[in-house]
Design brief:
mainly alpha; Tetracycline Repressor, domain 2; 71% helix; elongated; Tet_transcr_reg_TetR-rel_C_sf; HTH_TetR; HTH-type_TetR-like_transc_reg; Bacterial regulatory s, tetR family protein; DNA binding
């Protein structure tokens, strides 16, 4: 899958008809590259236009402001990476499956999201870099997580707590520890130290064991 194909596939989640003009795709691709390289604040629309090979006015025909352009990139990334639970395939794979142990559930989520992050890394890099600086992105993340992820996650945590496998921590704490452990590895692997010679499979298992050593109920 070339760059234009993955970009078009990702962006289909931000418009009902999923149709983008060739110029629009070039603008979005250039914006993703430049936001990832320089950050949102340091990138001008004139620079994006130059890299995209279009007039600056063309950008504003599609996006009223630079913020709208950023959100056009972030929105589909958010919908797929944080709320894949909206997709029947992912929900079936992750939540409708019976897991023998909590770590089996964590491993399934990890592998699924690993493939996504690796595939759409340029757009996800922009999302990770900018979420701390834009309240509307953080709010959108919160809404999506609470509406489409939290309750399903909560039921799985409660199930393994009832079985005596996970310590009686607040459910919110177990979810937070699980999510931040996975996200922390992805951030280190793909953003902070992408050129390090990683053994991804081994690191996944080490990190999952680290997480389970902290969550496992004493004596379990």
């Amino acid at each position: 899958m070339n760059e234009e194909q993955w970009l078009e596939e990702l962006l289909k989640f931000s418009e009902e008809d999923g149709k983008f003009s060739e110029k629009q795709l070039k603008i979005l691709e250039a914006a993703i590259e430049m936001f990832a390289e320089k950050g949102y604040a340091a990138t001008s629309t004139s620079e994006i236009a130059k890299r995209a090979g279009v007039a600056e006015g063309t950008i504003f025909r599609h996006y009223k402001t630079k913020k709208d352009l950023l959100l056009a990139i972030v929105t589909p990334t958010l919908l797929q990476s944080v709320a894949p639970f909206l997709a029947k395939e992912f929900a079936k794979e992750v939540f409708e499956h019976q897991y023998e142990h909590y770590e089996d559930f964590v491993r399934t989520v990890w592998k699924n999201r690993y493939k996504f992050v690796k595939k759409y890394l340029p757009a996800i890099r922009v999302f990770w870099q900018e979420i701390a600086f834009h309240a509307e992105i953080k709010k959108q993340l919160e809404v999506v997580f609470m509406e489409h992820v939290y309750e399903k996650f909560k039921k799985i945590v409660e199930y393994f707590q009832e079985r005596g496998e996970i310590a009686d921590f607040p459910v919110e704490s177990v979810i937070r520890l699980t999510v931040t452990t996975i996200a922390g590895f992805f951030a280190t692997r793909f953003i902070i130290m992408p050129d390090y010679e990683w053994d991804d499979e081994a690191e996944m298992e080490r990190t999952i064991q680290f997480l389970m050593n902290g969550l496992r109920k004493k004596g379990a």
